[in-house]
Write a structure and sequence with these properties.
Elements lengths: L9 H7 L16 E4 L2 E4 L2 E2 H8 L3 E5 H12 L7 E6 L6 H9 L3 E4 L2 H9 L7 E3 L6 H10 L3 E4 L2 H14 L3 E8 L21 E2 H12 L4 E7 L10 H19 L6 E3 L16 H12 L5 E4 L3 H4 L3 E12 L4 E5 L8 H5 L5 E3 L10 E6 L8 E8 L7 E4 L21 E5 L2 E6 L4 H5 L6 H4 L2
Parallel strand pairs: 4-20, 5-6, 5-13, 6-7, 7-8, 8-9, 9-10, 9-11, 11-12, 12-13, 15-17
Antiparallel strand pairs: 1-2, 2-3, 4-14, 14-15, 14-19, 16-19, 17-18, 20-21
Helix pairs in contact: 6-7, 8-9, 9-10
């Protein structure tokens, strides 16, 4: 198999890597959803077969794509000691976490529940970093007992809490401080995290004082510097700019006698949903490595979306076509509780019919909407689509990141199942919730049931 870099120029590759494009005939397969004989497949399984077996809506993941994307991100850093810590918040199913653990991956968690999932999946706690602004003392204790690699500390108050819990547990807590380098990531404001007005992290100017304080704490061991500037970044410049400021900070910390051995650069590398042009992981790695080789640190990377984003689809079925004087609505059985990104961020997801459209068919502008009782319940607005009739299957592409993990039961809708395809086999990795599941933990007090 010929290396894909030999087949296409970098500018074209950047547009298709981790996107909905499949390269075959001598190239590396970058994506394992494709039409064959007029039907969409995931690897070697028809999506129509998955819909028949597991119903709709349903999340469908490609194991081959997940593996390919993990390796494509991890391999360019192989000549520097590093940990690729998958960001669990992007996609938290334990089967998928196991897949990454089997590849030697670590994990970035932001709650005790995510740590629990990692351990259930067989993840190595010594490869876990714990981020997040609101760690409870119970969660801190659980992480210490589990033996995680380090905490990414987000405030002075949190550092005090970790010290208190570590003393109680008779453990030493390894920490990095999450510093905000005040770099504009040029992304959606909801997912920009490295600016002064963000709730995350500590101003880089004030971090030195807190590091010196941490050094004097008996149960705290400062070992690293952490930074995460945002998500869905499509340029390397913000990462490089942040690195310049982190390099200066590491130098100052070492002058104060702190032994900084880890540099956690967070995640944030974007993918192609529509017409974005994110850098290749190889290009990203070259920029990062050039800046960190002289620092004598081990690197931690926290990719999430870039690995799982385009490795899944949300498989759904059209229920009704509704025409008004103003527009056409395609009403489907998936909704904002299954894929909230369009409603929350105005995000774009490509929508394709599972049965390939006739290339000669005309498109018309359609709002693709779900059954939820909100005008904000949509997967697409004014989207040019070929004719799609009630009963036909539709694939919402790029659904691997922040779809199943952000799903809810709004309108008392059971959460959809998750299916992992490997070759010719489709494996159920999360069952569809039932109506009984919706009320299983609810209780009616006696005073409401007594005569």
């Amino acid at each position: 198999m010929i290396a894909v870099e030999l087949l296409l120029p970098s500018s074209v590759l950047s547009a298709i890597l981790f996107s909905g494009t499949v390269l075959r005939g001598g190239g590396i397969i970058l994506h394992h959803f494709e039409y064959r004989d007029g039907e969409m497949y995931c690897e070697d399984v028809r999506l129509a077969e998955i819909a028949q077996r597991f119903g709709t809506p349903c999340y469908v993941y490609s194991a081959a794509t997940l593996t390919r994307h993990f390796e494509a991100f991890d391999t360019p850093f192989s000549d520097l000691h590093h940990l690729t810590c998958f960001s669990v918040k992007a996609c938290s199913n334990i089967a998928i976490l196991r897949l990454f653990a089997n590849r030697g991956g670590g994990f970035d968690v932001v709650s005790g529940g995510e740590l629990f999932r990692v351990l259930k999946a067989g993840g190595d706690p010594a490869k876990v970093v714990y981020s997040g602004v609101g760690k409870t003392e119970a969660e801190i204790a659980y992480a210490l007992q589990s033996g995680i690699l380090m905490f990414n500390v987000e405030s002075a108050a949190e550092l005090t809490a970790i010290e208190r819990v570590a003393e109680r547990e008779k453990k030493t807590a390894r920490v990095s401080l999450r510093v905000n380098p005040e770099v504009d990531p040029h992304t959606h404001p909801y997912i920009a995290t490295g600016l002064k007005e963000a709730k995350f992290g500590i101003d880089v100017e004030r971090s030195l004082e807190l590091y010196v304080r941490a050094k004097g704490m008996e149960r705290i061991e400062p070992v690293g510097v952490d930074c995460h500037i945002g998500s869905q970044l499509t340029q390397t410049a913000p990462f490089v700019e942040a690195l310049v400021r982190l390099t200066e900070l590491i130098g100052a910390l070492r002058q104060h006698g702190l032994k900084i051995s880890w540099l956690d650069l967070g995640g944030g590398l974007g993918i192609t949903y529509r017409d974005e042009r994110p850098p290749l992981p190889k290009e990203y790695a070259q920029e990062i490595l050039a800046a960190v080789r002289s620092l004598d640190v081990s690197l931690i990377l926290e990719p999430g979306r870039v690995i799982v984003g385009n490795a899944a689809v949300l498989l759904t079925r059209a229920l009704y076509v509704k025409d008004t004087d103003e527009k056409r609505f395609l009403i489907i059985d998936a909704a904002m509780n299954d894929c909230i990104r369009p409603s929350l961020y105005g995000a774009y997801h490509e929508i394709l019919p599972v049965r390939e459209a006739d290339p000669k068919s005309e498109t018309s502008a359609v709002d693709v909407v779900g059954p939820i009782c909100e005008s904000g319940d949509f997967l697409a607005k004014n989207r040019p689509l070929p004719p799609i009739a009630a009963g036909e299957l539709i694939a919402t592409m790029s659904a691997g990141a922040y779809c199943a993990s952000m799903a809810s039961n709004y309108n008392s809708r059971p959460r959809a199942p998750e299916v992992l395809v490997s070759g010719k086999d489709a494996h159920l990795i999360r069952e569809r919730e039932s109506w009984d599941d919706l009320v299983a933990r609810e209780r009616v007090p006696d005073f409401l049931t007594s005569a």
